[in-house]
Predict the structure.
Amino acid sequence: RAKQEGRNAYRLYRCDIDVQARDHLTMETDLRNTVEHGDGLEMAYQPLVSRQTGALVSAEALLRWHHPTRGLISPDEFIPVAERSGLIIPLGERVLEMVLGQIRTWQDQGIQPVPVAINLSARQFWQEGFIDTVIAKLSHYKVAPSAISFELTESTLLNKQAQGIEILQRLRQLGCRIAIDDFGTGYSSLSYLQELPIDTLKIDRSFTRTLGGEKRGNGAIVAAVSGLARELDLCLVAEGVETQEQWDILGTYQVEMIQGFLTGHPMNSDDFTQRLMARPSKVLPYQKARNTSS
Ligand code: C2E
Ligand code: MG
Ligand code: MG
Ligand code: MG
């Protein structure tokens, strides 16, 4: 009897794997079509705000894929497929183009944008000619390098520190800023962090989530990363902030920037444009127009 169940369980398992493999293959084919034809892809923008003033200071660009039949698919689902298949290279270029195109549009409309962070997969980062692509796209859209930053995870640089540092240095010499994403979940040693030419640490959502809970030591990691950021002169961002309580606690740890549902979900470009225009800015478009006409 047990043997019988065991065999059934095995069959079920096998079947799952087959379904999974087929799904991935289908998704890869669909994604390839999407990348080639360019429709169905869109960027969402999520606000990063100053913990001290609440002001909008930056944005993270997050890729959205509207699948022709399945609807919206999460990047956590399709980015791994893109990475495995190599599609991440043309897809990443599309992301760069969409973000730079958006920044160009804002500037043409007289709207002062905030710096926009772009996520990089390891494969993109290590792709030969990646920096040349960045330079070419920046110049095509006439966007300053300081208008964008790149986010990469610790694992991207794993085992290849020296070469990685070289690429990071070149990006920063251009004027682009660099953030380490999901910090605390990877395997990088702290001494190695000291060597990295980066600007920002983003504390992973998993450490924000437990803040204020009962578990002993909650906050200890945030406190440690905060100390590290201060010593290394890095900007510190907390990801995944959903409650006022978390916001308050993060203040006691001197976290400078907040990103999370509390201060804004990822939103389409029209909604983010509204958010940009709602800022109390020194150079509002109408003021600019008035100044030039007087
Ligand atoms: P990430 O770079 O760590 O992005 C943050 C993720 O956390 C986003 O998920 C965002 O929607 C979500 N998030 C933000 N605030 C909150 C919050 O308060 N609570 C919760 N529960 N979640 C929050 P999203 O957009 O689904 O993206 C998932 C991941 O996919 C990203 O994680 C990033 O690693 C990857 N990704 C997204 N866009 C791109 C892209 O253009 N290129 C590459 N290579 N990867 C991308
Ligand atoms: Mg990110
Ligand atoms: Mg993150
Ligand atoms: Mg992530």
